[in-house]
Amino acid sequence: MPASRTIIINAAGIGSRLGMNIPKALIKIYGKPLINWTLNALKKEKNIRIVVGYKAIDVIKHISKIRKDIIFVNNKNFFKTGTASSFLLGCNNLSKTDVVSIDGDLLFNKSQINKILNSKNSCIGVTKPNTENAIYVKEKIIKNMSYHNGFTKLKTNYEWSGIFKINSKKLNINDKSFHVYEMLNKIKINFLIHKIKSMDFDTPNDYMELKKNFYKIYY
Questions:
Q1: In terms of C-beta density within 10 A (0-12 exposed, 13-18 middle, 19 or more buried), how is residue 80 classed?
Q2: Fewer C-beta neighbours within 10 Å, C or N terminus of the chain?
Q3: CA torsion sign, 32 to 80 to 184 to 138?
């Protein structure tokens, strides 16, 4: 049941490499801010928390016009922290609940996200390499199933999507990692790999490619 899990969207960052002076969640893709497409894909989810930071008021005002049931978490230290800190802030006061983490600068296929939402196992989403500054996923095969075997900056078959699912009791709420993938490397469990169509954007070239391939990714 959707109510048994919590979705945490990490949208506190500045997006300095993109240079647009606007939270990436509010950057328009095909006439709508990215967060609109994200929330449309998650419209059946009942428990959504969005972690804000940079221009938080603008993000909250916009999202509140779309949905009234979103819980906002303020990462006041967003200048000095990364996605791991935002995610863990979003996990506050969750008890033995499955959590799904989604980066706020990510466009993902609205049907394939269900592979992760409905997974009975801890898992991560991967995609075909498609960005300039990708973090890649190493894999290992166990009983014909593909599992995460660490992250690397050396190119592999898969790029890290920025999505994962885990039970909150398996998290170290005091972890000080900057990036989510650094935090995940410390968790000694096997994350099942799910392949999905997705793309994030950190650079102007990424943004142009995302707009060009919007329909291929989202639908």
A1: exposed
A2: N
A3: positive
Cα–Cα distance between 41 and 109 in angstroms, integer? 8
Phi-psi label, residue 207: left if phi above 0, alpha if psi -120 to 50, beta otherwise:
alpha
User: CA dist 192 to 14, 139, 144, Å?
Assistant: 30, 9, 11
Q: What's the total number of domains in the chain?
A: 1
Per-residue pLDDT of the chain (219 residues; tens, 9 = 90+): 454 899 999 999 998 888 889 999 999 999 999 999 999 999 999 999 999 999 999 999 999 999 999 999 999 999 999 999 999 999 998 877 899 999 999 999 999 999 999 999 999 999 999 999 999 999 999 999 999 999 999 999 999 999 999 999 999 999 999 999 999 999 999 999 999 999 999 999 999 999 999 999 999
